[in-house]
């Protein structure tokens, strides 16, 4: 059976009449001429007509057939054999996995990958037939289906496809395919699965493509070119919550997904501060731009790092919200009347930016003086959270406690206290190590004294490696050592502050050293901020107390109000943006005051790496390279006749040309 | 000539005087030469004296005049014969085809017929005229007077192209009227079956008629030229035929040649003279060619 795909051009079949009309028209206006007798003319005409008339008709037939063949080629006829006819009438289920991830917004050749995918999906749905059950699985970070189960209303699906936009999410290919197979299981008849995607290698390589053999899989790739791209892959602030008046360190990691070296400038905006760093990125490599920005007023500050806009601008910016705090919170632990502990409290209390706190969970500094060995694990945990734990262990600490605190090989460790008589014995003195450590930079000029000056008459001797030794006694026994633990630090402290056995606290450099020690190691609590959201997360505010939602506004960088909703399941109700929002800064405003901020970022590097797999490299299915449903259906359901029509038309025109040439030669002879 | 006729003007008459000898020879060749023994007339009348020209028959020299004047003159006589010439002029529609401006094939044939009639009457032979298309439209019986000539010329002048050609039919009709063996001159374009024509001529041939066929054709009829796509209208039947000249030109030429060849061959086989009377050639040239034919 023959069917026509491009029926809109059916009216063009009238063109077939053109040669006939031209033929008739050409014969319609001869000159009239009286002649004595037609006797000999008829004789001549009869003679030549035997040769000419058939040739005329032959030429006319050739021309008509050539035009018909060319018109037919535009109509795109399909030939259906018996088996295909039988299949066409049967029920089938069609499920499309439609890639909606961020990389689909990349524009190639004036058209985004998503637009091409939408056209393909539309064509597939259009060609699936009125009897087909169809559904779409949107490939996102959390794949979803358009219908709960496959349905016949493909018009709705096509409408959704027409209106689809790329998200700023990455995609979970394995989950999407699982969902698609589930959907196919709900259908009936033959099962067809269409994968409409750019087949981004980071998403598809290694994905689990577990499709039953009974399902026909077709792959429609939308990526056209090798796309070069650069992105800001991470933005880290140290400390995560800096204190006002201090500097925060911002580390911006930039990746180059291109086969050539790239030079660019990273721009940083933090509150009112603007900084930039030039960066050279090797091919397929990465670079780090480091900034040090002063933290001014306390509160939530927006941090934005940006690259010059490239062909894929979605990932050229990265956002963060930095909470600049008024002060650090310190927690002190140990025997209540321990002299050293009291001096610790006095010393830290003397610093204006540290305030005592009762909660260990939110403490920035934890001072533990001769606490029970059982606390070691808790201290370690807090350090890993990001706190600076200053631990002066008691003599009762065993190797196990040391292991719990330092996290490694100290099972046989032991602590032995030793003391000298202040009146008669020579005290132990200290010296700095790691002179190049920035910790000592402030003291290099001598203006702030010698941080190692002071005498100590009581100390501990332990046979464990406490990490990097910052201060040590002249005889080599560690005095102060620092060891990284997770996001924070564990500072092993072996210097008594009790004035009876030490005069260090009386030294002018002591407090300065303590401040430097804390600020340098306090950066351990680095991070990107709790208010940093991924693109698959809605912007949320959990107020401390119930608020009047009429007075609340959710605003983006442009200042316009964005819709949000209240989640009354929580108390007080949480507020969520209605939609997933594109990357950028957002703030919750109450009575004109920004009470909460959030930053939405482009997903991981995976979506920035725009390299795509050849669909043939995907383990399953058949690759369909054509962009139109008509061609897809033709490949699948029918035999396309248009190339044959074009060929036939060309052959007919060639024969016509040869015949006409032959005729002209005969006339000339 | 008492009056000026369309087909025999004083100019033509003057030209025919120049053709006098040729015409005379021709006519004599026709009449005297051919019918010397049986057809010669009984009386000989003095015609004129003229100067001797080398080659003249010495028997015609008037020696008495020579004795008196010492000049050589020939004494010529008008030979009275009873010869007849029958002119059959095709007056069908096809003969109305224009030759040049207002002149048609029938005019061309009439000019020639008028000349012949004039020459015949001038030498006191009899001439008859028959105008025909698919039938005999007019027959003027043989006569040799100037009045008769005038009658013939007037008939030619009033002649108009008629319907289809049927020479065979005309010949059949005229056969009973032409009882004496004589000369038959047929002026036609011969748009009919040669076999039928010669079948109709056979009785004349058997009765000893000297037959001359003049096929009157225009250059356009001999070669239709490059006219492109043309609708040809038959002047006899009104039929129409649309052809491209490129397509039929060669075939047409072949058809004409073939027809002429057939006519010529059939004429030759029956000892009938055939000549092509092209309308782009002067009809006086026909007289020369007629003389040429008569000498052979």
Keyphrases for this structure?
heterodimer; A: 669 residues; alpha+beta; Rossmann fold; Immunoglobulin-like; 5 domains; nine-stranded mixed sheet; six-stranded mixed sheet; 14 helices; 38 strands; elongated; B: 296 residues; alpha/beta; 10 helices; 12 strands
Major beta sheet, strand line-up of chain B: 7-6-3-8-9-12
Overall shape of chain B: elongated
Q: Largest sheet of chain B at a glance?
A: 6 strands, mixed
Q: Give the domain tally of chain B.
A: 1
Number of helices of chain A: 14
Q: What fraction of the residues of chain A are assigned to beta strands by DSSP?
A: 25-35%
**Class per helix and strand makeup of chain B:** alpha/beta
Structural class of chain A: alpha+beta
Q: Please name the two chains that share the biggest interface, counting residues whose Cβ lies under 8 Å from a Cβ on the partner chain.
A: A-B, 22 and 37 residues
Q: What is the residue-averaged pLDDT of chain A?
A: 83
Question: What fraction, in percent, of the residue positions of chain B are helical?
Answer: 40-55%
CATH H-level superfamily title of chain B: von Willebrand factor, type A domain
Strand content of chain B: 25-35%
Distance between the termini of chain A: 49 Å
Strand order of the largest sheet of chain A: 19-18-20-21-28-27-26-23-24
Oligomer: heterodimer
**Average of per-residue pLDDT values of chain B:** 79
